[in-house]
Amino acid sequence: MNVLVINAGSSSLKYQLFDMDTETVVAKGVCERIGIDGRLTHKPVSNGKPEFKAELPLPTHAEAINAVIEKLTSPEYGVISSLKEIGAVGHRVLHGGQKFSESVLINDTVIAAITECIPLGPLHNPANLMGIKACQKVMPGVPQVAVFDTAFHQTMPKHAYIYPIPYSYYEKYGLRRYGFHGTSHRYVSKIALEMLGIPAAGSRLITCHLGNGSSLAAVKDGKCVDTTMGLSPLEGLPMGTRSGSIDPTILSVMAANEGLTINQILDVLNKESGVLGVSGVSSDFRDIEQAAHEGNARAELALDIFDYDVKKYIGAYMAAMGGADAIVFTAGLGENGPETRERIVAGLEPLGICIDKEQNNVRGQQRDITGKGSKVKVFVIPTNEELVIARDTKEIVGK
Ligand code: ADP
Fold first, then answer.
1. CATH number at 199-380
2. 211 is in an annotated binding site
3. Which is the closest atom of ligand 1 to the Cα of 214?
4. Residues that bind substrate, according to the entry (predicted)?
């Protein structure tokens, strides 16, 4: 069965077509500038056909999906002969609120529930819905599945997800910690258990998804018991451009002194903060590391703040779970940043954690980087959120 995986943003739509018999990607690409002018990049992977890259009008997500189908089936750039060869579509959906603890087959009720979650994910859920509705229009009758970033974290106990604010806000508006990157934390924690050769029952993992957006999860007995992101992806660690957790009083001082509205302040905290805000250099850790090597003190400070925070959460989650069997590094920086990994675990020997410097010199590959005498295993595991979406979709549609 071929499964089309869609990750729809407000003006972009990324896709990967999987052959699920072999779990391989046969084509992938991205539509950009939807609703503006439009650009499609399409890469056939399986058959050596050329890449297609051109500007073309994409007024809505429906035209974008149409263009994707056209390329997937075209004699020149295609990998399948007709739409009939797409057995199902899997959609990444950001916010499933409290309604979804696992992936689901999309029907009208599910669409209504995702719509109800818009206040919790105002930037992403409307875009995800546009992707779903466009597929329904262009590919009627093809089953579609929603895979939620929040679902894996629904097993958190109440003491980990309730904010200490008046309880009525939770009851009235669902204000609680939800957590994100759930498909990634779920994927790498499963592989970590295989690498450890132990069952989920009794296991304790700390999964560190470190990319442009970053979050940690504490995974006990194979289930998430805590995570650093909250109601939105703004909470927790400092990130590329997001502040992570800060004292909310800062907002009132910013408003009073800069004359900013609450939305403008949230924009600053989402888009101008994090390692970009501190370093003034870039949101990309590669640029910041380079600047730090060249003696830029604020770039060094930005890295120090980030590493220190990840270290603190590792300690916190070890306390929360009474120890850890393994720490997992994943996502852009976690997979490709040996220096970051080294700085994060430096000084954790008293907690039984150290890495092997030679083994740690790895980028984008699964590897056990545990140091000699370390009680806690340390793994690098490349994440693959699209594969999780394709697997869930196949499983649900096959039921
Ligand atoms: P997103 O959260 O957008 O999915 P990714 O998981 O792709 O992001 O991570 C992107 C980030 O990973 C980049 O901004 C960069 O900081 C970091 N990164 C990627 N490759 C490297 C590398 N070789 N060395 C250091 N950092 C890297």
1. 3.30.420.40
2. yes
3. 2
4. 92
Q: Quick check: 399 pLDDT over 80? A: no
Beta carbon of 332 within 6 Å of any ligand 1 atom: yes
- CATH 3.30.420.40 positions along the chain are 2-148, 199-380
149 is catalytic: yes
pLDDT at position 30, please?
A: 97
What is the C-alpha to C-alpha distance for residues 176 and 304, in angstroms, rounded to an integer? 29
Q: Which atom of ligand 1 is nearest to the CA of 213?
A: 2
Does ligand 1 lie within 6 Å of residue 100's CB atom?
no
Q: Give domain 2-148's CATH superfamily.
A: ATPase, nucleotide binding domain (3.30.420.40)
| Cβ(87)–Cβ(1) below 8 Å | yes
Encode pLDDT of 8-36 as tens digits.
998 999 999 999 999 999 999 999 999 99
Tell me the pLDDT tens digit for each residue of 247-292.
999 999 999 999 999 999 999 999 999 999 999 999 999 999 999 9
